[in-house]
Amino acid sequence: MRVVVLGGGYAGLVTTRTLEGTLPSAVDLTLVDETGDHLIQHELHRAIRRPEFVDRISLPLTDLLDRATVREATVASVDREDRSVRLADGDAVDYDVVVVALGAGTDYRDVPGVAEHALPLKRLPHASRIRREFRGVLDAGGGRAVVAGAGLSGVQTAGELAQFARDEGVAGHVEVVLLEAEDRVVPGFPEEFRAAVREELDRLDVAVRTGTRVTAAGADAVEMAGESVDSADAGTLPHGLLVWTGGVRGPDALDGRRREVDGTLALDERTFVVGDAARVRDGSGAVVPPSAQAAVRASETAANNVAEAVEALRAGREPAFETWTFETPGWLVSVGDGAVAQLGPRTFTGPTANLIKSAVGVTYLADHGSLADALAVLREEVEAERDLLDAVRERVGEE
Ligand SMILES: Cc1cc2nc3c(=O)[nH]c(=O)nc-3n(C[C@H](O)[C@H](O)[C@H](O)COP(=O)(O)OP(=O)(O)OC[C@H]3O[C@@H](n4cnc5c(N)ncnc54)[C@H](O)[C@@H]3O)c2cc1C
Predict the structure, then answer these.
(1) Is 263 helix (H, G, I), strand (E, B) or coil?
(2) What are the boundaries of each domain within the chain?
(3) Does the C-beta of 250 come closer than 6 Å to ligand 1?
(4) Which atom of ligand 1 is nearest to the CA of 41?
(5) Which of 41, 43, 70, 363 to mutate to test ligand 1, by most ligand atoms within 8 A of the CB atom?
(6) In the CATH hierarchy, which fold is given to the domain comprising 2-104+250-315?
(7) What is the pTM of this model?
(8) Which helix (H) or strand (E) holds 340?
(9) Tens of pLDDT along 232-241?
């Protein structure tokens, strides 16, 4: 019997690690990933300002797994009828049960010129390119960077760019603009969290323009429509850098579609889709936001249902899958050197939020990476913000 997991991001890694502990030893377990590394993608924006972060957020999958075989290859398609995964190099990997955890690509929403002129932010080379081009803006003595899409990744990218300009002492010459089609930043998140994120962006002088859609993009300017368009700019915004964080699409291996699954994460009795590759309507009927947090949380159910599928195939019976419902303790984002943490009904900003953010990252790495990696990240966080612990101590003393 052969179980194959496609993708070594949050969903693929956590599902595989769980299966290593639960699948009978006779079952062959393989993880296919095109990079061979696990990327801690929710910290990717940090690598724009701090390239040294790259080593901290990219970990070889072979170091993180015990029993599974890691195969470095690009998945081209999944043939459910033949139960075979086609690889870009022409090889095929056959399976009895497959987990598709290939994450998401960038959705340019067919806006003319965006795919050609905007930079996405999903993988390490994207962060390096954004850094390089923003450095060009800084070196030219100033200019404007436009980030289109104010979801989790857009907000954090705009924050990094604004902080980058501050760190270089040229904030007065660089404008960072964050465009969002809806009438608020981080739409879909709780109101208090949204308000705190907006305050952090204002603190860094990010020019937030909500209710504003990009209608076209060129090499030097974007065209916009919507409520923030005024007669001064007439809907044309020149830029030295354009980053597009305006949407996600399914992986190419799934024809660009995020497959719809319910809380069992099953497409059929042998195929599971988990993480951003899936559009999940969970056990409560709610659509789950594509996020690292949801990918990690869904993976336990994905692994349990894979183990059940294997058992049912061996016993020649119908599987009985469990259903997952997304429950979140809260949300966390960094905005430059600041952060916003929403935990239950409380929202934190400043050093407390920073500390919570670091602690969560460290816990993730300690659970799914290694303690050494976790401590290295913590050290880096603390070194980068020398005053952090003192500030927290002061704050705790005050309360
Ligand atoms: C800048 C940024 C900031 C973010 N901040 C947050 C945040 O604060 N909180 C939060 O919860 N979420 C955040 N997110 C979203 C979060 O990172 C994603 O939701 C999460 O990575 C999804 O996990 P996944 O396992 O589904 O996919 P991924 O983590 O994208 O993993 C997919 C894996 O599949 C592999 N792969 C892809 N295609 C192929 C192929 N054809 N063949 C073989 N392998 C392939 C990739 O190499 C990768 O290892 C952020 C995202 C970005 C970009």
Answers:
(1) coil
(2) 2-104+250-315, 115-246, 337-398
(3) no
(4) 17
(5) 41
(6) FAD/NAD(P)-binding domain (3.50.50)
(7) 0.91
(8) strand 338-343
(9) 888 999 999 9
- Residue with CA at minimum distance from ligand 1 atom 6: 42
pLDDT in tens, 14-39: 999 999 999 999 999 999 999 999 99
Neighbours of 102 (CB within 10 A): 28
The residue nearest atom 30 of ligand 1, judged by CA position, is 103
Tokens read off for 49:
């300002």
| Tokens standing for residue 88 | 């870009």
* Bridge partners (DSSP) listed for residue 59: 38
For residue 130 and ligand 1, the question of a CB distance below 6 A is answered with no
Ligand 1 atom with the smallest distance to the CA of 11 is: 25
Distances (CA, A) of 62 to 37, 69, 115, 204, 222: 8, 8, 34, 40, 43
Cβ of residue 71 lying under 6 Å from some atom of ligand 1: no
Q: CA torsion, points 13, 16, 21, 25, in degrees to nearest 10?
A: -150
CB of 44 within 6 A of ligand 1: the answer is yes
Contact (CB, 8 A) for 64 and 103: no
Q: State pLDDT tens for residues 90-137.
A: 999 999 999 999 999 999 999 999 999 999 999 999 999 999 999 999
Distance separating alpha carbons of residues 293 and 285, to the nearest angstrom? 18
**How far, in Å, is the centroid of ligand 1 from the Cα of 14?**
13
Residue owning the nearest CA to atom 53 of ligand 1: 122
Q: In CATH, what number does 115-246 get?
A: 3.50.50.60
Q: Is 333 in the pocket of ligand 1 (CB under 6 A)?
A: yes
Q: Do domains 2-104+250-315 and 115-246 have the same CATH topology?
A: yes
276-289: b (≥16 Cβ within 10 Å) or e: bbbbbebeeeeebb
